[in-house]
Each structure stands twice: as C-alpha cells, then as structure tokens.
Specification:
Distance between the termini of chain B: 60 Å
Helix content of chain A: 40-55%
Largest sheet of chain A: none
Shape of chain A: elongated
Distance between the termini of chain A: 24 Å
Helix content of chain B: 55-70%
Largest interface: A-B, 15 and 23 residues
Number of strands of chain B: 2
Strand content of chain B: under 5%
Number of helices of chain A: 1
Radius of gyration of chain B: 18 Å
Number of helices of chain B: 10
Oligomer: heterodimer
Largest sheet of chain B: 2 strands, antiparallel
Order of helices and strands of chain B: HHHEEHHHHHHH
Structural class of chain B: mainly alpha
Shape of chain B: globular
Structural class of chain A: mainly alpha
Chain lengths: ~20, ~230
C-alpha cells in the first residue's frame, strides 16, 4: 500500500467519475 | 397484439452507461511550439487525467465496491492500461486510420511513429479494425472495459472467489445483452471475448513504451501515472 499510496487514497475517496 | 417492450437493458449495463464519464479533452500548452515532445507531453498529461477518471469510474462498476480494498487495488494495478486503451479504441472507431486519444488529439501513424508510439499504434489499429467489423455497440464497449479490469489476472488477489463472482456478474450481463439485442449472432459473446488477448498484448506494449519514454527522461510524467506504470513492471 505504501508503494501505491496515490491509488490507495483515490480508492478511498468518494469522488464520482462524472464530477471528475 | 403489440410486441413485448424490449427488456430494459440489464441493470449492470445501464449502470455502466450511466456512470460513463464525459470524454476529456487534451490540454496542449499554448506557449510551447508544436513538436513530437509536445505531443508526448500533451498525451501523458491527458492519460494521467483519464487514469484519475477511470479509477473513479471503476468504483461504480457493479460488484467492484464489494471487493476488498486490496483486491480493488490489485485489479486496477494490473488492468488499468487495458481499460484506458479501450477508451482510445472506442473513440477511434469512427476513423479509418490514426488513434483518437481525445477529440482534439488525433494522431496518425507518422505522428505516432515520430512520437515513439509506433509499437502502440499497430496493435491498437488492429483492435479498432476488429471492433469496426464487429460493429461493437457502446453497451458492449463499456461492458468489455469492465470485464478487462475484472479479468486482468492480478497477481496478489486476496479473495479469488469474490473476484470470480465479480467476473461472472459482468459475463452474465454481456450474455443477457446479446440474447436480447443480438439474438441472431449466437457467437457474438465469444467473438467479443476473443478480442481481449489482443487488448492485453496492446496494454503490455503501451506500458513498455511509456516506461521507455520515462527511463529516457524524454517526457515528464505525473506521479499517479508513474506509480501505475511502476506496478506493471
């Protein structure tokens, strides 16, 4: 998880793809 | 007697369609003069934004959020490039040559070659031709993209059964769609699935291509893109 911290963080936040 | 109303598209596919993000546009730097390097920089910036959107899109694939966080990461780390490339293929279907990375970033073969992307161009054009011949629908394209992610053969899967159920749910949705929409083409599901090995090969070539560009320090890349490239090595 340390190595992939950005992906880890993105999976935990709840932005919707439409918003992005 | 009226024909029965066509079955409402199954829930999985209508969910996939409703969470389809709007296509992104490239953001070429207006100050930098046009060059192969500028094309690459514009492309890498676009792909990084596509990657951000794709990760968020994945969370809306029916069944994905019921996977453990470890398995969600594993599937994305192994299938992210395939999912990105299927978006490029879908956008390029209308063109007889070249790759449409965005509405305002269409690269023909010489441009891809000059930018060092020829190893990516060739297999992707082959895939585009296959989908043009199949006359693939948007429903099929979004379902295949979700299946490519689900079927990405991640190495460190924590719960194989839940990943299998995730795959089965998408497979059922595709079969249900074909039975209702393309009943006459009994081999269609198989034909669509048999395009996935070429997608996997294209994905590996794309990863190698961007990795080479990174190692040669030819083009700056965003941290997320590099993090995902690193996982594919």
């Amino acid at each position: 998880k340390e190595k992939h911290k950005i992906l880890h963080r993105l999976l935990q936040n709840s932005t919707s793809p439409v918003d992005l | 007697y009226t024909h029965p109303v066509k079955s409402i598209r199954n829930k999985v596919i209508s969910q996939l369609l409703s969470s389809e993000p709007a296509p992104l546009r490239a953001s070429p730097d207006p100050v930098t003069p046009d060059s192969d390097l500028k094309t690459l920089m514009t492309l890498c910036d676009l792909l990084n934004r596509e990657l951000l959107v794709m990760i968020s899109w994945a969370k809306h694939i029916p069944g994905f959020s019921s996977l453990s966080l470890v398995d969600q990461m594993a599937l994305l780390q192994s299938g992210w490039m395939e999912a990105l490339l299927l978006c490029v293929v879908w956008r390029s279907l209308a063109s007889t040559q070249g790759l449409e990375f965005a509405e305002n970033l269409h690269l023909n073969e010489p441009q891809c070659k000059n930018a060092g992307l020829l190893e990516l161009y060739t297999p992707l054009r082959l895939l585009i031709d296959k989908y043009q011949q199949l006359n693939i629908s948007h429903e099929e394209a979004v379902t295949l993209r979700a299946m490519a992610l689900a079927n990405s053969d991640a190495e460190h899967v924590e719960n194989g059964d839940s990943v299998l159920r995730f795959q089965d749910g998408l497979h059922e949705a595709l079969q249900d769609y074909e039975v209702n929409e393309r009943a006459a083409e009994t081999h269609r599901v198989g034909r669509l699935l048999m395009t996935l090995p070429l997608l996997r090969q294209s994905s590996h070539r794309a990863v190698q291509c961007f990795r080479r560009l990174h190692i040669q320090h030819l083009v700056p890349m965003h941290k997320l893109f590099l993090e995902m490239l690193d996982t594919k090595i």
